[in-house]
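Submission sheet (multi-component)
Chains listed below:
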Amino acid sequence: MPVEIPKEKWPGSVLTVTLGALPSEGGTRKRVVTVGGETTLPFLHFEGEIPNPPVVAIEIKDRKPDDWSPLLLEAWKDVIDDPAQWAAAAEAAGADLIVLALSLTNRNGEPTTPEEAVANVKAVLGATGLPLIVLGPGQAEVDNTLLVAVSEATKGERLALGICEDKNYRTIVATAMANGHLVIARTPMDVNLAKQLNILISDMGLPLNCILMDPTTGALGYGIEYGYSVMERLRLAALQGDKMTQLPMIVTPGFEAWKAKESKVGEGVPKAWGDWLSRAINWETLTALTLIEAGADIVVLRHPESVKRVKAAIEELMAAKTLVS
Amino acid sequence: MTVHRVTFNHRAEPVTVKSGTLITEAAKLAGIDIHQPCGGQGRCGRCIVQVTEGKVRLRSSLRLSAEDLSLGYCLACQAVIEGDISVLIPEQERIERRLVTDRTAVEVEPPPTYAPNQQTLKRYFLTLEPPDYEDQTDDLSRLLTQLRVDLGFEEVEIPITLLKKIGTVLREGNWRVTIFLDVVPCRNGVPHVRMVEIFPEHCEDDSPIWGAAIDIGTTTVTLWLVDLWTGVIHAQVAEYNAQIRRGEDVISRIIYADKDGGLQELQELVVGTINQLVEVACKRVKHYEVKPNDILKVTVAANTTMMHLFLGVPPSYIRLAPFIPTFSQAPILRAQEIGLKINPHAIVDCLPGVASYVGADITAGVLSAGMDDTDKLTLFLDVGTNGEMVLGSKEWLVTCACSAGPAFEGAGVRDGMRATDGAIEEVWINSETYEPDYRVIGGGKPRGICGSGLISLLAEMFMTGVIDKAGNLNANLPTPRIREGEHGMEYVVAWGSETQHGRDIVVTRVDIDNLLRAKAAIYAGFLVLAQSVGVPLEETEQVLIGGSFGKYLNIEKSIQIGLLPDLPWEKFHFLGNTAVKGAYYALLTHESRERIREIAAKMTYIELSADNAFYEAFMSAMFLPHTEILRFPSVMEAIRSLRTPQ
Amino acid sequence: MALTGIQIYKLLPQTNCKECGFPTCLAFAMKLAAKQVELSACPYVSEEAKAQLEESAAPPIRLITLKSNGYEVKAGNEVVMFRHEKTFYNKPGLFVKLQSSALEEEVKSLAKRIHDYCVNYVGIELQVDGFAVEDDTHQPDKLKATLAAIRSVSNKPVMIFSDYPENLGPALEQLDNEVPLIGCATSDNWEKFADLAKRFKAALAVKADQIETLAELTEKIKGKGVEDLVLVPMGKNLGHELMLQTQLRRLALKANYRPVGYPTLAFCSSQAQMVQAIAKYAGFLVLDAFAEDLLYPLLVLRQNIYTDPQKPIQVQPGLYEINNPQPTDPVLVTTNFSITYFSVANEVESSGYPAHLLVTDAEGMSVLTAWAAGKFDAERIAKAVRAANLEEKITRKRLVLPGAVAVLSGEVEAELPGWEVRVGPREAVDIPKFYKQVLQVN
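Outcome: structure written.
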C-alpha cells in the first residue's frame, strides 16, 4: 500500500556560522567549527539538509569556580586551577569547542583585570587548537571592559564573545566587528525578544552570520519546556524564511542542569532520586538531549561523561542520513 | 552647465541656480528661510510650497494628496529644479491643513434631521381649573388629571421633592404652569413618563432646555452643555478626574474604594469634578445666562469602574476573576440622589456597558462612530487609560480592553500633560543635528507634552536614530540633548530657557518604556481581536479612532511607532472624544439611546487575560515599529529611504 | 478543516438568546472554534449546521486507553505537531520491561519496587504507569507465572509482548476486566493477534519497520473488527526512529490519513531514545530497565513537555539566591511571571549586589496584574516568607516590595511583625540605584 509521506518544503534555512580562524585565515586555530545550515527541522534528513551536526562545547573557568557542584570539581580536579590545562583536558574529553567563562574576581578575590583576562584567554588559545567562546562575568560594565581587551588582543581569531543582551550590546558588537569576532546574543526565553536583539545587533552592521543566539533555557524540571518551545518556534520561523531567526542556537544545559538541586545536592534528598552522581549526569544529559531535539546547534556542557553520551546520540541522529540518501 | 531661474512669491528678482538644485536651496539663495524641522528629509511636510509655473522633479511626495500634487504643491526639500519655475510659499497655517496624515477631530453638530419632537424631555404648558368649595380635588390629582386629559399620560412618576413644591407653584402661577416631562417610549406602547420640573406661569416657548452629555474617563472627565431644543452644543469642557489623587488607574481606584470611606470619597471626588465642570460650562455659554439648576437631563458614558464609583456602587468584583461587575445598566436616577449640583430632579441616564472592562464609553463610542450601522469591516479604537477596541460591522462586533496606561493622556510620563494650552502636540527632530522643533497648543511657551506630542516624539526619535528599535537612547550621538538623568538616559525636548516654568522638558528611558508598553498593548489588542474571529487585520476597511489625544493626531507617526496598523492613511478617521459624542446623541434622541442598548447587547467581549495570545502579541509589539517588520511595509520603506542618501 | 469563529457564527441562529450560557452567539462560536464547548449546548442550531460543524471535529489520532483494576493510561487524541501550537494532551505511559525468564521472586520484588516508585515534583506525585512483560522464554506457562507474580504485588496496567500469539492466551485469561496491550502483530502473525485482541478486548500493538507495512496491517486488522491499535515503528537507529515518528504524526494530522491515526509505542534502551520518544510523539514508552536515578529525570521531562503552554509562563515560586547572599542581605519580593522574574533577577545579578529573591506564587501574573486580581497581597507575601523559612534564614529582616505595590507596605508590616518593610523601585532598572541610595550598600 503506497503511502505518500508529507514533506515540508521550507523556504528558509539556518545560516552557517564558523567559529575560529585557521592560521591561513588570520587566526591560530588548528580546527574551525561550522554550525547551522539546516534546511529542515532537526535530523529530518528525508526532507532536507542537515549539513553540520550539532556540536558540544565544554565550559571551563579562568580559575577554580566557587559555586560548582563538588561532583564537577571532582571530575576536573587535576586541571581546575589552570585554565590552559583545563582546556586541554576538555579537548581530550571530546569537546568540539571550548567556552571560557571569565570570573568577576581572580583567585585572590580581587576584581579580574583586563590584563588577567587577556592572559587567561591567550593561555587557553595556546593550550588547545579548538575554537573558543569567551564569556564575561555577566555584569554589563565589567563584561564590556574585559571583553574589549580580550577582543583586541585576539584580533582575527573569530572568537565568539558574550553575552550581548538587549540593554548591553553596543560595546561588545562594536569590538567584535572591529576585531573579526562573533557575538552571542542572549534573551530570556522569548521568541520575540530573541528576534528583537538580533535585529538590534544587525542594525549596527554586524552580519547575521557573525551572531549566535542563545534563547536561554531552563534545566529539566526548571522550565525546560519554555526554552524547548521557544527554540522550536525560532527554528520554525527560520525555516519559514524569517531572517532574524535564522541564526544557529547555542544553549547552556550544563550551566542550567548543574545549578539544579538534583545535581548540586547529594545528601538529605528523597531516596527516589537515586544515586547522586548518575542522577546529576543524567540531569545534564537529558537536558542537553532534549534541547538538541528542539534544534540546538551548540550545547555547552560541564561533565565529561555527559559530553560522551550527548556526542554518541548526535552521531546516531546524523547516521540516519545514509538511510534516506 | 545648465542654469534655471527661480521666482519666489511673485518677486521681481529671480535667483539663478544650477540644474538639480532643490527648491529649499534656491530659497536660501533668495534670502528666504523655509522652515525644515526634519532637516530636509521629506518627513515633516512643513516645507510645502506651490509651484505655479514650470515643473520640478519630486523625489518624494509622501505627504501630499493627489489633488494637491495636481495643483503643483510639493515639498521644497524634495523638489529638484530642472527648468525655470515660479514658487509660492504659503503661510504656515495653510501648510498644516494640507498634510494628509494629520487628522483633526471633526467639529460636532446636531444631526441634520434633529428636531425638538425627537427629544424625550418635553415642555408643556398647562392651565388648570382652580379648586373651590365644590371642587375639593387635591393639587396632585388635579395636575395628573390635567396631564391625562391634555396629553394622554396615564401614569407619571413624581419625585417626592417635586411633590413638596407643587402646591406653591400652582398657586404662584395662578394655576398656569410650565411642566417638564421625560417621555420615554416603551415597547408596549405606553410611554414611561417622569416629571422633571414644574414652574409657575408659561415661560417663553423657544427658550433653551438645558442638558449635558458627560464622559467620565479614568483620567479625564468631559462635559458638553447642550440646548435640548435645538441640539446645539453651547460649551465643551474637560478636566482631570479628581480621583486621580487616589490612584492613576481603575485598579488602584477599586482597591481604594474597598478601604474604609474610600468608596464615598471617590464618589464625592468625581461628582465634585462634574459639578465644577458644570459651573465652568455654564459660564462659557454665550448669549444665554445659564445656571446649573437649569440643567434638566444628563446622559453619562463611563467605563464600568467609573460608572460604579459615580453611583457609589462598590466596584470590588470588577477586578477579581472572573471579572463580573455589579451592573451593566443602571436604573434612571435623579441628580439629587447622587449629589450632582444641577436641577435636583434632573434625569440622570447612565448608558449601558458590556463587561467589566468594556463600559458605556465604548457602547456610546460605537454608536457615535456609526459602527453598528456599516457594512465595512471597521476597527474602532478608544484610547484612554485603557485601550478599548471594537472590531466588526453591523453584522457582528467583538471587543476587548487592554491596559495601556495613561501615557497617551499625558499622565504617567514625567513631562506629560493633557492636550491643553502649553502642551507640545507635535515634534520634529533634525536627523543630522538631533535638534528638535515643536508645535505648542495655543502657540505660547511649552509646559509639557500631550499624548499626540508623545507619539510624534517617539516616532521622530526612532526615525532619526536617537533611540534604537528597543527604545534604548543612543548615548554615542553627538548631541547634549541625550544625557544621563535621574532615571537613566533621557532626551531634552525643550531647554528650560524655552519653557513656561523654566525647567527642561525631557523624555526619559522610563517614559519611553511606558509609551512602548502603551502602544504595544493597543496593537496587541488589535491583533488578538482579529485573530479571535479569524479575520486578517489587513482586511480592515476603516479605522475609527476616538480618545484623549486632544484635537489632533498624526496617523503617519502613529503607524511609525506601531501604534496603528499599517493601512493606507485614508482609511483612518480621527473622531476625538467618541464617548461623550455618543452620550450627546443619546441625550438628543430616543432612537440613539435604543441603539446603544442594542450595541451593548450584541457586542462580544474577549477576555485577554484568558490565554497567552495577548502576551505573545504584546511582546512582539514591544519594538519599533514591531518585531515583525513585514507588518509595517511603509515604515520599512521610510527607514530604508532615510538610511540610504538619495 | 477547522472553522473560524466567524465561520461558525454564520451557521448559528444569531439570536443572542444566551441559553447556551454565553452572552452572544459569536462568543459561543468562538468557544466552539476553540473546542471548549459542545455544539449541543445550543438548543436552536439547525440540522444542516450540525452536520457541517460535527464533520470538522473527529480526532485524527484515536484515543487508546489501557485499563486495569483502578488504573487507566491514555494515549492518542493529539492534535498538534508542536506543543506550542496548542498542547500535548496525554502524557506517554511509561512501562518498565520484565522478562518471563526472570525468577518469580525477582519479578515480584522488582515489580513491587516499580509499583511503589513515587517521586514528588513541584507537589505532583510522579509514578511509573505499568509493566511490559516480554515472553523471552517462549513458554506460555512462564509468561502466565510472570504475570501472576506481577499481579500479586501490583494492579497497574500491563503490556504483553511475544513473537507467538498463541503463547498469550493463558496469561490473558487471568486478567479480569482489563484492557492490556498485546503484541506485536506483524505481517506474519497479525490474524492470530487480531483474534486474540478481539477475544480478550485487548489493545493491539502493530509492528513494522516501514510506514506502508504499518498502514496495510492496521487496515487489515481493522477489517477484522479490532480498532484499538498502537503503532510500533521500528527504526534502524535514533535518527530513523525520529523520522518514522514524525512521518506518522504528520500523516495523521496533516494528511488526515486514517490507517496510521493511532498512538505509537517506542521500545527504549538508550537515554537518547527515551528523551526523543517523550519529545517526539510516542504514546507509550517501554523502558529496558528500572533505575531511580534515570526514572526521576524522565518522569520530570514527561511532565514538562506535556505542560499546557497556553498557561502564562511561570517560574517556580520560592527563594532564589543571587550573588551569594548572606543572612544579613535584603529579601526582594516579586511574582512568578517569567518576564517579571527575569527582569528583576537579571538586574540584581548584573548589579553584583547580593539578594534573596522571594518569588511568590501569583499564578504567573506580573506584579501589577497580580495585585489587580488579588493574587499578590500582604497575606500571600507573608505566606511565601514563611514557606521559604526566611524567619530562620535571615538575621537582618528587611523585605523590599516592588514599587508598583507601595500601597501594600502597611499591610505587609502588619502581617510580618519584626520585619522592616521597604518600598523598592517601580522599575527593575532602578534596583542598583536603590541598593546604593536606600539600602546604602556599596
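Remark: Chain A has a mean pLDDT of 95.
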